[in-house]
Amino acid sequence: MSGSGPEETPGAEPAELGFRPLYRQVRDALIRRIVDGAWLPGQPLPSEMQLAADLGVSQGTVRKALDAMASENLVVRRQGRGTYVARHDDERVLFQFFKLVPDEGERSFPQSQVLSCIAAPASAAEAELLRLKPATRIIRIFRIRSIEGRPVVAETLSLPEALFPGLSDMELPNNLYGLYAMSFGLSVASTTEKLKAVSATSEDASALQVAPGTALLEIDRVAFSLDQTPIEWRVSLCLTETMHYETHLG
Amino acid sequence: MSGSGPEETPGAEPAELGFRPLYRQVRDALIRRIVDGAWLPGQPLPSEMQLAADLGVSQGTVRKALDAMASENLVVRRQGRGTYVARHDDERVLFQFFKLVPDEGERSFPQSQVLSCIAAPASAAEAELLRLKPATRIIRIFRIRSIEGRPVVAETLSLPEALFPGLSDMELPNNLYGLYAMSFGLSVASTTEKLKAVSATSEDASALQVAPGTALLEIDRVAFSLDQTPIEWRVSLCLTETMHYETHLG
DNA sequence: AAGTGGTCTAGACCACCGA
DNA sequence: CGGTGGTCTAGACCACTTT
Q1: How far is it, in rounded angstroms, from Cα B245 to Cα A43?
Q2: A209 at the B interface (CB within 8 A)?
Q3: What is the mean pLDDT of residues A89-114?
């Protein structure tokens, strides 16, 4: 190749509307392969030189694509060893998506007790947020999450049943995102969260063993997979008397 | 230059302990110049070729440094025009640091009413969070922020007086970060936030014109300048009945 | 037309890792 | 030792913006 553009490979499409840089196309192609399960979480990708040869681009372009994916936490690069598909193990989720930390002391992952797990037609809100046709079947989970035996989060989750066949019959672990990845090939890549302060209703209060009217932090989260499909909606009601939600901006 | 390393420029230091990549050094040098006011917010930096010549590195290295700074929101790159020092105008702060948005409707920036602005010795908490010696003088501001005439945030701010000489005598605008940058040469580059749900005390309640015990979102934020010095601590008590705090992860 | 940043390529040397 | 990613350079062509 002499110099540029999404061109020059014999037989390539002649640069139509909506250009996308080559490295962007490489990134998307690699993501597609990961989504399709060509490389599993924790496994190494081929080397940059390999991928460059496979895809017919230069090593530098592959590198830029992998750097972008690394900054999105989709892969992990380790000097001298290789580039690995990111794992959704506890360690990772703990830092990336679980923002509740104790006011003092180490952060720890809560134990979860599932109180119910049933399939039902989606409510209007569920259908909208998960981009499903009205009344599509969803799985609804309610659980209590505790730290050191103390209930701190009451959580309601909604998932499209079609994406998680058989989930309602499974034993549910503390870290659901790990299960999604391991058993259903769905990795949570990003989330949107809306936070509010609310007063505990009597149901909330009894679930968390506090007085009704106690101030709770409500986290309303939609989780998206690698290809931006919404795959989970969860509303978490959190006791923040000894914990807080921590975030860094900029 | 033939190929690599923080070397080869005649007279350069002979690669000691704690290497830092050249592009990192270029980034830091450019940040220092911005901090020192060589280029003001909104102004264009010299072109990549210019900077490369000035600094004695290749254009590619300058580019990597500028790309890093762009991803940190320190500069803005505009194809065909140039690279500009980021501005801390309302537009920018609105999206980067102001995360409260209405449940429905457009996001808007609140009007602020300053109720008090006094200098005093730092409390223990202020001294610790702002990394000051005990009892260093600080400026303490209390203000109410309203949207469409409705009070929605009660906010207490603490700033080191040494960094903001004369601020307590100034007219304070709605967007303080713009003032910090414009009048004191201090840009807020990053923040750390801790969120909790709390019940309104009687003082909070009267300030926000709600019933005591109303659930409020407490945002405890420390803001850092370009060189990671803490320059502001603010605690915001937010009414989240018609608004929410929005964040995207991953 | 000239100048800017955006992309792509190619080749070099380095630090790190595992056999 | 050979292979990997990390960095640096140099030069090319592109799209965009302004003159």
Answers
A1: 37
A2: no
A3: 86
**Mean of the pLDDT values across residues A79-88?**
87
Residue A232: count of CB within 10 angstroms of its CB: 25
pLDDT in tens, B29-87: 999 888 888 888 888 999 998 889 888 899 999 999 999 898 888 899 998 889 999 88
Entry pTM: 0.86
Which domains does chain B carry? 14-85 (1.10.10.10), 90-245 (3.40.1410.10)
**R_g of chain A computed on alpha carbons:** 21
Structure tokens at A182: 């391991």
The Cα of A123 is separated from the nearest Cα of chain B by a number of Å equal to 20
Asked if residue B135 lies in contact with residue B161, where contact means CB atoms within 8 angstroms, the answer is no
Are B195 and A240 an interchain contact pair (Cβ–Cβ within 8 Å)? yes
The answer to whether residues A232 and A223 touch, using CB atoms and an 8 Å cutoff, is: yes
Helix, strand and coil percent figures for chain A, each rounded to 5 = 30, 35, 40
Q: What is the DSSP string of A12-60?
A: -----SS---HHHHHHHHHHHHHHTTSS-TTPBPPPHHHHHHHHTS-HH
Distance in Å from C1's C1' to B80's CA comes to 14
A67 touches strand D (CB under 7 A): yes
Nucleotide nearest to B19 (CA to C1'): C15
Using a CB-CB distance cutoff of 8 angstroms, which residues of chain B are in contact with residue A92?
none
Partner A contacted by B213 (CB < 8 A): yes
Tell me whether residues A246 and B195 touch, CB distance under 8 A. yes
Phi, psi at B173, each rounded to 5°: -80, 170
